[in-house]
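Z., the sequence and structure:
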Amino acid sequence: MDELAARKHAVGRVLDTAPVRKRRLGVWALAASGIGLDGYDLFIMSVAGPLIVADLGLDSWQTSVAVGAAVLGAVPGALLSGRIADRIGRRAMLKIDLVLFLVTAIASAFAWDVWSLAVFRFLQGAAVGAEYPLSASMVSEVMPARKRGVWMTGAFSFQAVGMVLGAVAGFVLLTLMPDEGTWRWMLLSGVVPAVIVAIMRLRIPESPRWEAERGNLDQAELDTEWLTGERPTITDEDIAWAQVYEAGPQPRMTFKDLWAPIRRRALVLTTVPWFLMDIALYGIGLFTPTILAGLTGADPNTHMAKDDFIAADIAATGQAAFTDLFLIVGFILNMILVERAGRIRLQVVGFLGMGLGLGTLAVVGSGGPLWILLGSFVMFNTMVNMGPNATTYLLPAEVFPTRLRATGHGVAAAAGKVGAVIGTFFLPLATSALGLGPSVGVIAALAVVGAFVTFFFRIETRGRELKD
């Protein structure tokens, strides 16, 4: 028997089977909290967007640049942070990432024109994008296997919580300060939750699985005991595993290993659906108040009175906040169903539901009753979080091995953010050229494509142990 291999397996076994106690819950919440910041930032920017357009006098292209810069920055943020986290650890990157978010959030609030705002938001977006592979890797590696899907979805549901908090903050700030310049306070408000999370993350331990894969077995066992209250000891199960698998630290894996024939199916499954989903999520989500405001006549590109524009924007923000409550409903449904129905079935059904909601919106268009428009957003928000918004975050953490987990998740998240960039830049320009209905119809069709790709490249991971 090779003792190192047996000790490594013992660490994973204890993490998978030990009861979840207070410390492990704390690590789970702190890892997930960065996703909450993403949701908060996403909705705050959707509320601030019309104010920025009016305050800085932006055209359609400049609007896309201002609103979409953070989404563009999320691409390298997700891609590079995952790779770095596989090299230096999850804990260090979780701390570095929040510092970057804090600095750039403050700088964005003091931007003097659209281009300075775009630069600061790009860097802030890199910090937001980095949270995806970092939080997913940490949560999947420290929480037990039996209900890992529930824990992962629960972590990702912080995004919806952040969006609702962002909606409340945006509505309150705009009500208290009904002025076009209030967008600066909105962007600055993200500093408050970020500071709280940054302070609390100072004590977060490293992932014991990552330590074990690096050969740091003593530290991995100490961290496992700290998290679970149980010191890993070698059992017959660990001995049997050690007799089959290679012992000791494993060789490093690189981006090239993702393209190995054995992983190509997993790569397609984790990248293409996330790419298609984020076109819809960000294309629609970032401009929900803008779309609703347009229906009530609050278009900053028209010559309506300032007071009327602010009043209509407040009303649209309240309507958007109502529809965003169903993002939480979607996550709750996912947590109930993910271990029963499985990841793939939920992703397929979710994509089809998104297509139905957006297809209805496309047919009705801007001339339809408001209740149908709100119902379409409710359908979209519920189904996106019940399905692909949760499952595309979950699957990369389960189909890639520990040595490649953050890298693989980073590539998948980066693919998603490329889709987010397309959605963010596409909708304002396409709506201006084609109208709202046809533009949303294209996104609805892409959601249906996401369902087909998921089905044909499916890998069901429900109930499986994480790969080493």
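Residues 72 and 421 are 5 Å apart (CA to CA). Residues 3-228+260-456 form a domain with the Growth Hormone; Chain: A; fold (CATH 1.20.1250.20).

Let me know what you think.
H.
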